[in-house]
Amino acid sequence: xxxxxxxxxxxxxxxxxxxxxxxxxxxxxxxxxxxxxxxxxxxxxxxxxxxxxxxxxxxxxxxxxxxxxxxxxxxxxxxxxxxxxxxxxxxxxxxxxxxxxxxxxxxxxxxxxxxxxxxxxxxxxxxxxxxxxxxxxxxxxxxxxxxxxxxxxxxxxxxxxxxxxxxxxxxxxxxxxxxxxxxxxxxxxxxxxxxxxxxxxxxxxxxxxxxxxxxxxxxxxxxxxxxxxxxxxxxxxxxxxxxxxxxxxxxxxxxxxxxxxxxxxxxxxxxxxxxxxxxxxxxxxxxxxxxxxxxxxxxxxxxxxxxxxxxxxxxxxxxxxxxxxxxxxxxxxxxxxxxxxxxxxxxxxxxxxxxxxxxxxxxxxxxxxxxxxxxxxxxxxxxxxxxxxxxxxxxxxxxxxxxxxxxxxxxxxxxxxxxxxxxxxxxxxxxxxxxxxxxxxxxxxxxxxxxxxxxxxxxxxxxxxxxxxxxxxxxxxxxxxxxxxxxxxxxxxxx
Length: 495
Ligand code: NDP
Ligand code: BG6
Known about the structure:
This protein is α/β, with parallel strands linked by helices. It has 14 helices and 17 strands. The chain has a nine-stranded mixed β-sheet, with helices on both faces. A six-stranded parallel β-sheet has the order 3-2-1-4-5-6. A two-stranded antiparallel ribbon has the order 9-10.
């Protein structure tokens, strides 16, 4: 599907996400010819920048983050424009009218406009209203779409309120709730692995799978985002969105066809089947943690409470582990252990399917368990672990692995990054990899009891930076007689 001529309006254009992710993604799409020449990018924020000063700022970011240079960089920058607008003041949006007219004329984009909301979330409901006040949401002249960054709401109530507000001005098919994990090639590959191979589907259920482990670990701390993070925590920042979406990809039923509706129907269905947590379940099946000073990558790092922008008495969790269950025929009784945290030993996101052992140990008490390890990042790939005979006398089994690594594919270097893929899809009008309202609500509904626990200042355990989280998380999985995998940053190393 080709993209039509269009204007991309980024609200929050003087912010971190714009220069670190959005502009680099657009630049890379331009570089490989996916955007063509008939597009414009209009940055909008309150800061008093001009087209020229905005271009300079973005040029510097591209040189820094993408090692961009030469004529290609200069050509790309000519597509960038800027308009200062007081984003919470409806009257001020009038300034956008002549700018948009001028850009649609210049690039022949006939009113086609993609709005990207990359501002503080408090403006996600305000901006659509202000745009509508100036007739900038109607589709009489070109299509209008809106990408909304995370967090989409703060809890189930605010997510519903936000939906209601946006739906006053945009139809559901125009709304693109972005979760950049869905743009990751390896997350999409979960679907292809499951649904294009006859081998896995018969095994992918409670009869053969003992438990599933999902890890989203980061070695970084909260960096410059302490202020934002403290109001969010690991639960809202990573679990409620990214990791529940990954869980849905692992657990969903096959869609009848691959299109936005049937895919998103299946995602919503499985998220609605998450076993609701009672207050007692939260105490037994959820572990929250906060890092204290420790060593990561051979460097001493400060504890969370000493990070910039974090109140000294904060109870915000930087780690979370949970046992979830899915109430349907495929998964009844199979625990999904999910954990995420900052300042863990390494950056790794992976899904591990732990298969049941043989009914009777013929060769050795310690025969290895069969595991399928799906490495989302880094060192993306898939590894199947199984037992084979140890050479020599007797019948002792040892674990061996069959590994596939994305980097071995000659085309791997041309893979789109998550933001590139999702921006391109939104420009094409393909919402398959964006979260639909019912799925977002199902996620919030599931986590609400954890939010209630947090609001009551529920227990948050300390863990040393550079370790795999609080020991209470080990006890959580030990109830199943298991231990968490301790993955290294490189898939080949077995741990
Ligand atoms: P920043 O704080 O760096 O940028 C916020 C932007 O919003 C600035 O351009 C700011 O510019 C503009 N803005 C407009 N109105 C207001 C206002 N009333 N108050 C404050 N700022 C305003 O945030 P990020 O770029 O980091 O994040 C943007 C959104 O994207 C957030 O919702 C965040 O949660 C989400 N996000 C960010 C990620 C990241 O890695 N940074 C990752 C995933 C999601 P000005 O002051 O000139 O108006
Ligand atoms: C963002 C979170 O959504 O995802 C960050 O706000 C987190 O806190 C980031 O670091 C992780 O994304 P990735 O793609 O690096 O795994």
